[in-house]
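User: I'll paste a sequence; please echo it back and then give the predicted structure.

Assistant: Echoing your sequence first, then the prediction.
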Amino acid sequence: MIGRIALGGGIAAAATAGVGWVIARRLNAPVGPRTFDFTVRGVEHADDGDLIVLDRTEPTTAHGIYNLWFEHGGWAQLSPETIDRGPTRIARRITGTTPDFTPKVGDHASWSGIYYATPADAGLHARDITITTPAGPCPAWRIDGDPSTWAIHIHGLGSIRAGTLRGVLAATELGYASLVVSYRNTAEGPRVGTGRSTLGDTEMADVDEAIGYAVRRGAQRIVLFGWSMGAAIALQLADHPRHQGLIAALVLESPVLDWAEVIKTNCVRSGLPAAVGYLAIPWLTVTPLARAVGLPGSIPLRSFNWTARTADLATPTLILHGTRDDSVPVRLSQALRDAHPDLIKLETFDAGHTLCWNTDPDRWQDAVATWLKARVPR
């Protein structure tokens, strides 16, 4: 009987360990190809613009402006209005496309909040530059402006630089110079080791070099714009003693403020109990286990838990967060605001993860511009 209990306990422990290993591996997996899981069901031509017909789903019926990225190249920007096409389908008007591109019935596409593919698509004049980092050369876009005030825009896990162009518009309106950066183990940055993300820990060093680039070119004040995991990187950089007095403000969209809670939330989204998320933590924070999932070493997740580190916050921060975010819970941003109402302002939107701008671009832009004008001296 004792032998049977011990064996059963061993099997249970192995199964538990296996679940944690799988979650950790999926979380920090190397960047993969975009998934093209939307199908064009129809294209309608009209005098006031073409319409594209899609299956009726939660994303395709969401209010706001979005982009379809097509499997064989090209993209199409969509209007906020949806037009009923029966119980299973809707139509949205096409407001812009890649030059000389026309969607066709049967095309496969990816739904995205990344509205602009390049700075030129957003009406921005940018130069392609390279930031030299510990990981190697990282491509970046530079948008010129006031050389004394720079904004550095940091995208999130699994995303690309183009996603932050939504925020660059606000910085440009204020006259800031901007750097739109990449970092290691992303679709655009250099590959290091196994190509796995360290959830902002080592990536932070690459973004830090962008700060140095700006300082060497006259920056006296820097505003960090961070999206999702990019926000976690921004918070770590603002906390660094070397940047005291330099980083004037943070603008954080859908910020990761506690990786443990984010992991639990994403387990629930995948149909698992929230508590299962805790099984992944040792595989990220214990060095031998972290190396077993392909990481270079352990990740100090506690240092990324800003709901427990509220006393360490010192930089004025604007948070923009969607109330329908099922990836990074808005309650974490609310808790941070409640702990530091003098330092942190929270604007909520009826939006999903990193989609606040898409839901209401004018309000997002106005909120950022108004807050920065009051917080960052010129």
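The first strand starts at residue 38 and ends at 39. Confidence is low (pLDDT under 50) at residues 1-15.
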